[in-house]
User: Fold this.
Amino acid sequence: MTATAPAPTKTRRAPVTSDRSSAENRLGLRLVAPAVIVMLLVTAWPMIQALYLSLFQYRLTSPDDKEFVGLGNYVTVLGDGLFWKDTVNTVIIMVVTVAVELVIGFAFAMVMHRVIFARGVVRTSILIPYGIITVVSAFAWQFTFSLTNGWVNSWFAWLPWIAEDTNWFGDHWPAMFAIMVSEIWKTTPFMSLLLLAGLSQVSEDMIEAAKVDGATWWQRLWKVILPNMRAAIMVAVLFRALDAFRIFDNIFVMTRGAQDTESSSFLTYRQVIEQFQLGLGSALSVLLFLTVLLLAFLIVKLFRVDLAQARGEG
Amino acid sequence: MKTDTKTKAGTGIGFVLIMIWCLLPVVWIISLSFKSTAETGAGSPQFLPKDATLDNYKTLLGVGTLSDGTEPDPAVSDDFIQALINSFGIALIATLLSVVFATLAAYAIARLEFKGKRLVLSLALAIAMFPVVSLVGPLFDMWRTFQLFNTWPGLIIPYMTFTLPLAIWTLSAFFREIPWEMEQAAQVDGATSWQAFRKVIVPLAAPGVFTAAILTFFFAWNEFVLAISLTSTTDSRTVPAQMSFFVGPDPFNPPYGQLATASVVVTVPIIIIVLLFQRKIVAGLTSGAVKG
Assistant:
């Protein structure tokens, strides 16, 4: 109880404690507790529930027939071609959209970095796709590619593979294309803003020095600018890749999974909410969770990004 | 000199391309919202409406008289307005609560030394990457047990969960920029840690808190997976969910104009927020995000 702290503690009213650091420790824990509880309440607990339910044959339409099947649901899922087809779809969407966004996003970031006039106008405009609801983006692009009401066919009819009557939602690849356009349109601004932040931290002196030494524009880009933006690029890729892997809204609105455009998230949703297959759906949920975990682990390991460090969080 | 002109031209072209990229789809849905049902029903591939009409807006908001002299169908406007109220209510409450919790946590992370700090940050990061769909099944089951299914709190609670990570990261980055000495000075003057937090740091942190609130609001306003899975009627359906189920009488011929109008209406708040707080949003998205 007696004060042993090197400096005399100055407490006027109720003596808080004799040991400042343990008081700080307790206050810290008390302040983070509400946030941590809310975060765990809706994630950890349902995930444990999902793990448990995934071991049962359980349909909500006949709850009395709940039957323990062990790993049976996992065997069913992993042995089903649909699961793999949807996983491949999701991976294709993820890889293509992130790659395209990285290139376009970087080009946008370069422009925004250079623009002197109308800087506010560009930044305001670029935040509109970022802020717009994904469902609205999906509708806007669905109507754009619509056979009867879209402008793509009439504007681009001069291209050899587009005709007045091209039905974009009538085949697998065109439908996937339309979905990816909507996804890329909406999320490129986010990517470009993250890259812009990285770009503005590359020292101008270094670029100037390279220029004086006779480096071409291309060399400056690859040897000076990009290596110095590594952390920013990796953070952007990690966040966007995991986000793209969870793609759901665009597919739900634009095709409802028709033409084999279903994603892993959509398959899980369909099993649980439309078919009431809680057991099987929970197995899918667990697998989806593990895939995302694996993906995050791979990206972090592969690129050796220390996120905490990248965000200046010692 | 030559490269400089080239760079300038490139920037100019880039500027135009960015503007087209960002605004063309928005202009498109606005244009579509002025097309009549008759026009879209017959097929109308041209960009601008033939005869611009306000009928879609009148139908959705339930005001005025349509161009054919009939009153708008109240069933459509009632559902849409209820969905708007749900969207606003749920997003605002979730934002408020999430920002309060995140402010407490971010303060502790930025300013205090305590065990488990890194654990909290890692947890937040893990949740930011969590596949929301994998929660739909168990939450659907749990929410029905707790009577939270198809209610506002049933959506507010998970929205808090998924906006807390973003808010905590953004805020802790902002809080690290606040001058430490001010707090110490207050403590020297006899304030406790809590008083120093409330009287000194909160006013300084207000701009950061506001930014976190905008980003949180965007998330809740946009959320779709939980909104369609944990609701069943217009009592708690938000606009995105309501729109996705709004097919109209003919499933093969969706009411393009009305869906576009709904899209425009829900995009208006976003555009207002973006116009007013552009700087804050960019700062929030990037300041804490990338420091290499």
